[in-house]
Design goal:
The complex is a heterodimer. By secondary structure, chain A is mainly alpha-helical. Chain A contains eleven helices and two strands, in the order ααααααββααααα. Chain B is α/β, with parallel strands linked by helices. Chain B has a single domain, classed as Rossmann fold, CATH 3.40.50. Classes of the chains: A mainly alpha, B alpha/beta.
């Protein structure tokens, strides 16, 4: 279940990166990723530069490198796809480690791996230094439409509740001797999911009732005032500005 | 230990007769859209400062009655007045004021606590009323302090124990400074310590309380007066010890005291 993961990604701390307002960090990561994606894949040195930048951010944020590496495992499905590319892609073939592989495929694999990993690591650092609810506050301040922010906020709040219900249903099934062995058991699991959906739907109605009882009229009251100062924006701009310089250099230098 | 008499005297303010009643329900009848009739003419008056238990078997219409008090359900016969103000679902402004005056604490705190942190959840009601800044902060602090949960202000509700969540749920409503606090099965799923802690909090509040429950000892401990709602009408209304001592009355309405509980022990 992806349920509890949301807050397990966060590493509490008080580093300068932790203290930056969430909207600054969100914009910084977005611009950084854009710079990485815009870089020609042949400029290997540029990607080494990006990696160094992220390593510096991790050091400032006091996020251990081991933690970051372990969390990059989420990328694994893409890595498998990237590793297949040199073998299945067409075009000029080169011999590498005694294997005949496609040159275009090799570059394609490198492109996915390098850009994907850099993006994933940047997101890991963002999640490790920003509480999930602050991230929501950040996207709200970046003018994300209210309904989307509200949906995400409720998901964050109720993911654990729903996961708890799912767990209790699984235990209740197992206690009566049910074990999923093969596809023929899918019907039982599907019915469980149906029941879970109904329960969640009913909970949604009860939550709405509780909200209306406290004066909810379709809009969440906005009472947060976490503005960002120019200094904080400047500090957050360090990473994307450096990345933009590298990207520009990669285009200019042959 | 204090006796229940001392607690009553030390707890909520004595009922006041000069102020308009906190709650005045007259001839309330309601049928659900599918035709099921739930209420057949309910009359209830609760004076300011009273603590009243609403007892009744499952399906007696307790929840239906509660949802009428702040205008969520409407459209039947009769009227509901809260501190003199009529519940009129057509009048948005009045309805907003009614929902401030009637604070409902629902049975499952997970339904009531939907914001990312305790502080934001307690602020939700007063913020909807238009409060901001210093005044909003003060309301949130006061409400959390009254239920002893001030230290948990910045924690997510899902990280609190069940008893703590129920206390925060009470705070979310107290922050709106209601005229009447309506609690739906406040003791359900609480362990004995959580039950006692909640009782102490409720006794310390200076507010009118209507407590919907099956938990007769809890009603006896907290509410000097009880109503029995059965079959969509108020079947009995009187001092809690008297009602609970009347075995025939309880049996007629599917109410039962727990094993070993002697109502004479609480009778004055």
């Amino acid at each position: 279940m992806g349920a509890g993961h949301a807050h397990r990604l966060y590493l509490p701390g008080a580093s300068p990166v932790h203290r930056l307002p969430p909207q600054c960090k969100l914009v910084a990561v977005l611009v950084f990723v854009a710079a990485v994606v815009a870089t020609p894949r042949e400029r290997i040195w540029a990607f080494a530069g990006y990696a160094l930048l992220l390593a510096a951010v991790a050091a400032v944020a006091r996020v251990p490198y081991g933690v970051v590496l372990r969390r990059t495992l989420i990328e694994l499905p893409f890595v498998v796809f990237a590793l297949l590319m040199p073998f299945v892609a067409s075009g000029e073939r080169v011999t590498w480690l005694g294997l005949s592989v496609s040159e275009a495929g090799l570059w394609g694999a490198w492109n996915i791996l390098a850009k994907g990993t850099l993006g994933v690591v940047a997101s890991i650092l963002l999640a490790a230094t920003t509480e999930p609810r602050l991230l929501l506050l950040g996207v709200e301040r970046l003018r994300m439409p209210q309904p989307i922010v509200q949906i995400a906020a409720f998901m964050l709040r109720y993911a654990d509740v729903v996961a708890g219900e799912l767990r209790r249903m699984r235990i209740a099934r197992a206690s009566r001797g049910f074990e999923a062995r093969d596809v023929r058991d899918a019907g039982v699991l599907a019915r469980s999911l149906g029941a879970l959906f109904l329960r969640s739907y009913e909970r949604g109605e009860r939550v709405h009732l509780a909200m209306v009882s406290r004066g909810y009229d379709g809009r969440m009251p906005a009472w947060h005032a976490v503005g960002a100062t120019a200094a904080q924006w400047t500090a957050a701009a360090a990473l994307p500005a450096a990345a933009a310089l590298i990207a520009a250099a990669a285009w200019i230098i042959p | 230990m204090t006796t229940s008499d001392e607690r009553t005297a030390a707890g909520a303010a004595a009922p006041q007769d000069d102020a308009p009643p906190s709650l005045e329900v007259r001839g309330l009848a309601y049928a659900y859209p599918d035709g099921t009739q739930a209420l057949y003419g309910v009359d209830v008056t609760i004076r300011r400062g009273e603590r009243v238990a609403l007892l009744g078997p499952n399906g007696a219409g307790k929840t239906t009655l509660v949802l009428h008090l702040n205008g969520i359900l409407h459209g039947g016969l009769g009227s509901v007045r809260v501190a003199g103000l009529e519940v009129d679902p057509g009048d948005k402004r009045a309805l907003r004021e009614i929902r401030r005056r009637v604070g409902i604490v629902f049975q499952d705190p997970d339904d009531q606590l939907f914001m990312p942190t305790v502080r934001e959840d307690v602020a939700f009601g007063p913020a909807n009323m238009g409060l901001r800044g210093e005044e909003l902060d003060r309301r949130v602090r006061d409400a959390l302090d009254r239920v002893g949960m001030l230290e948990a202000a910045d924690r997510p509700p899902q990280h609190l124990s069940f008893g703590q969540r129920r206390r925060v749920a009470v705070a979310t409503v107290l922050a709106m400074e209601p005229e009447i606090l309506v609690l739906d099965e406040p003791s359900s799923n609480l362990d004995p310590a959580g039950r006692r802690e909640l009782a102490e909090i409720l006794l310390s509040l200076d507010v009118t309380v209507l407590m919907v429950t099956h938990d007769l000892p809890y009603a006896a401990e907290l509410c000097p007066r009880s109503l029995i709602l059965s079959g969509g009408v108020i079947a009995a209304d009187g001092p809690t010890p008297d009602l609970l001592s009347d075995a025939d009355l309880l049996a007629a309405h599917r109410l039962e005291l727990p094993f070993g509980f002697d109502p004479a022990a609480i009778a004055r």
